[in-house]
Amino acid sequence: MTIGRKDTLITSRSAAQQRMVPMQGVSNCRDLGGYTGKDGRLVKWGMLYRSAELSELSEQDIKQLHAIGIRTICDLRDRDEISAMPTPALSAVTNINIPLIPADNGPVVRQAYDLGDTNKRAHLDRFGPPDQLLVHLNQAMIQSTQALQAIFKLLLQDHSTPFLFHCTAGKDRTGLIAALILMALGVSKETIMQDYLLTNQYLDTAKIAAKSRSTMQAQADVPEEIMQDIMKAVMEARPEYLNAALDQMLEQYEDIEHYLTQAIGLSAEEIVKLQNKLLS
């Protein structure tokens, strides 16, 4: 089954670097423009941005966001994450919170910081190997159809772009939204996976690891070697994570068009509108 069309993949580090938005207090911030979409049209530069959380924006970073014209920030995190790492108020920018993880999903490890929560760590064994934590999370997010609909409706609004969406690390929740938007635009699955894996180049994992470990200093219930495996699994972008979501979506709905229309509830006209808005 084909998702989009086969196009030129990211073949060099320098090509990937062109996507990066230089920021002092934020890592993994990049432009989704330039990819080949439906009918050979390119995703417009300067319209879609993905990033990690924005709580440590510097004055220069804020100037940068204003310079690229960000109008809407879509925060995919839960309330406790926002309370711990709030995004500063930005003038002329609408910041909307649309949590992506189902509320009834039970304790989940959303990102490395959650490993400091004893209650969440108590559930690690039920998932088996550490990488299954993220497989489970990605599969669960596919079921958040109301949240996904709200995100697409927000993006479709007039004057919503340039549009920046993010979670904590800008990896799984952000990666899924990037994948769904790009698939709706006709970008190939191969290219989407390449974009997803760029997180491994640009996420400041050392900073995240340091923050995470600082919350676990008083905890000694997880052996160090096991915690290292878990931290590595949680902080990396791995093909099997995104594929877990996409494979489940295709198993249930056959193709991206059916998922967008039947699960998320977008009309064919809205999909065309999105393509006309974001493709050159």
UniProtKB/TrEMBL annotation:
GO molecular function annotations of the record: phosphoprotein phosphatase activity
SUPFAM superfamilies, sorted: (Phosphotyrosine protein) phosphatases II (SSF52799)
Recorded superkingdom: Bacteria
Domain Tyrosine specific protein phosphatases: 142-227
Matching InterPro entries: Prot-tyrosine_phosphatase-like (IPR029021), Tyr/Ser_Pase_IphP-type (IPR026893), Tyr_Pase_AS (IPR016130), Tyr_Pase_dom (IPR000387)
Gene3D superfamilies with a match to the protein in the record: Protein tyrosine phosphatase superfamily
Coiled-coil regions listed in the entry: none
Pfam families: Y_phosphatase3 (PF13350)
Protein family per UniProt: Belongs to the protein-tyrosine phosphatase family.
Protein name: Protein tyrosine phosphatase
